[in-house]
Specification:
Layout (H helix, E strand, L loop, with lengths): L2 H9 L7 H13 L5 H10 L1 H10 L4 H7 L8 H10 L2 E4 L8 H12 L21 E5 L3 H4 L3 E5 L6 H16 L3 E4 L5 H11 L4 E4 L13 H10 L1 E4 L9 H13 L3 E4 L7 H11 L3 E4 L10 H8 L6 E2 L3 H8 L22 H9 L8 H8 L3 H13 L3 E3 L4 E3 L14
Parallel strand pairs: 3-4, 3-7, 4-5, 5-6, 7-8, 8-9
Antiparallel strand pairs: 1-2, 2-6, 10-11
Helix pairs in contact: 1-2, 1-4, 2-4, 2-6, 3-4, 9-10, 9-15, 12-13, 16-17, 16-18, 17-18
Family: Belongs to the DprA/Smf family.
Protein name: DNA processing protein
Organism: Blastococcus tunisiensis
């Protein structure tokens, strides 16, 4: 059926996301680049079906028609939908039950604060504008996957340290039933995705090209594995190329779809920094993994930590990430503690008696009392407990520190 016929049928009162409405959304996803404030507002005002009908008839406002240009006469909707079906993808529209309305509502609130006229509006590559539709490839449901999700982003030219940390975070978050969201790029992104896959957890890659077009090409196998349990997501129809400006535009989706964004490594100027600031603007938590102060790949992370108003939180483990983005009072990270020692919990007198014990030659309670600065009776009360703890021993002539167990520092080792 021709597009205009499907649109006319949809405009006639058809309910639900039928063929006409879905083709209208598919047409809109190719007509104008995502992130255009005025175009999104126009579609919201008149509806997707009516917006396409007016644009194709030349009845839309001149400013809106200028955004579409020569694309108004083109129709690749059937080809796009067929191409998506061939690669196991589908078009997800706001009218679908699977649409992640709650997390994306933050974008709706953000765009409402933009000026009505073009003057003063945010640039398209940084504007916080909701998507008109999403092309998704994979077996998961988008709304369920992003319900408990965290973004992990960072440098493409990552160091071994950055890839190790990203992979460990991805694995540990996946093991805690959190979805890892990233951009599918080299470096930190790929390490985070692979970490989640090793934990047999779903992960989600937000792409700057069509979901049928692996970019980078070397990640074709990785994207196939992601689609088996998670999702590949894009605002651009199948076949679209990964143009430079599209990476900047897609970053807002990574920030919006998740509860928080973790920056593992970032240079002085990086897309990861931009994603973190978009997360802040959307009311999401910004989390930063620190790195060596000598590493150029951690300069951006440290600058984000220093940036006033960003509210970034330093994290070093998945438990700390979950504590920051999880439910208050439920997802608490355990306190960081060193290895337990038999010295832990000793009272003041017992600790002083222990410190007074020599290493080799045993001495009597009187000598220990003199060194520890306490009564002999207090020494005699402390020694049995210290012996039971394996900290001191009786030599036959006096008391001394118990020798440490072989292979490790023992209770009597120096603190």
């Amino acid at each position: 059926m021709r597009l205009d016929e499907d649109l006319e049928e949809a405009a006639g009162g058809a309910t639900g996301p039928g063929p006409g409405l879905r083709r209208a959304r598919a047409w809109l996803s190719r007509a104008v680049e995502p992130g255009t404030i005025d175009f999104w507002r126009y579609v919201e005002d008149v509806g997707p079906v009516e917006a396409v009908r007016r644009l194709r008839a030349g009845a839309a406002p001149e400013r809106i028609r200028a955004l579409v240009g020569a694309r108004a006469e083109e129709d690749a909707t059937l080809a796009d939908l067929a191409r998506a079906e061939r690669c196991g993808a589908r078009l997800l529209v706001p009218e679908d039950d699977e649409w992640p309305a709650l997390p994306l509502h933050a974008l709706t609130l953000a765009v409402a604060a933009e000026p009505v006229g073009p003057k003063g509006q945010s640039d398209r590559t940084t504007a916080l504008v909701p998507p008109l539709a999403l092309w998704v490839r994979g077996t998961g449901r988008l709304d369920e996957l992003v319900d408990r999700s965290v973004a992990i982003v960072g440098s493409r030219a990552s160091t071994a340290y950055g890839e190790h940390v990203a992979g460990e975070l991805g694995h540990d978050l996946g093991a805690r039933d959190w979805t890892v969201v990233s951009g599918g790029a080299f470096g930190v992104d790929a390490a985070a995705h692979r970490g989640a896959l090793v934990a047999e957890a779903p992960t989600l890659a937000v792409l700057a090209c069509g979901v049928d077009r692996p970019y980078p090409a070397a990640h074709g196998a990785l994207f196939h594995r992601i689609a088996e349990t998670g999702l590949l997501v894009s605002e651009w129809p199948p076949g679209c190329a990964p143009l430079r400006h599209r990476f900047l535009v897609r970053n807002r989706l990574i920030a919006a779809l998740t509860r928080g964004t973790v920056v593992v490594e970032a240079a002085a100027r990086s897309g990861a920094q931009a994603t973190a600031r978009r997360a802040r603007d959307l009311g999401r938590q910004v989390l930063i993994v620190p790195g060596p102060v000598t590493s150029a790949m951690s300069v951006g992370c440290h600058e984000l930590l220093r940036e006033e108003g960003l509210g970034a939180v330093l994290v070093s483990s998945a438990a700390q990430v979950v504590e920051a983005v999880g439910r208050i009072g439920e997802d608490l990270a355990p306190p960081v503690a060193g290895p337990e020692s038999a010295r832990d919990g000793l009272g003041d007198v017992a600790a002083r008696v222990l410190d007074a014990c020599p290493v080799r030659t045993g001495v009597g309670p009187e000598r220990l009392a003199a060194v520890a600065g306490c009564d002999v009776l207090e020494v005699l009360r402390a020694l049995p407990a210290l012996e039971l703890a394996g900290l001191v021993e009786w030599t036959g002539t006096g008391w001394r520190l118990a020798p440490p167990p072989k292979g490790r520092g023992g209770p009597g080792a120096a603190a």
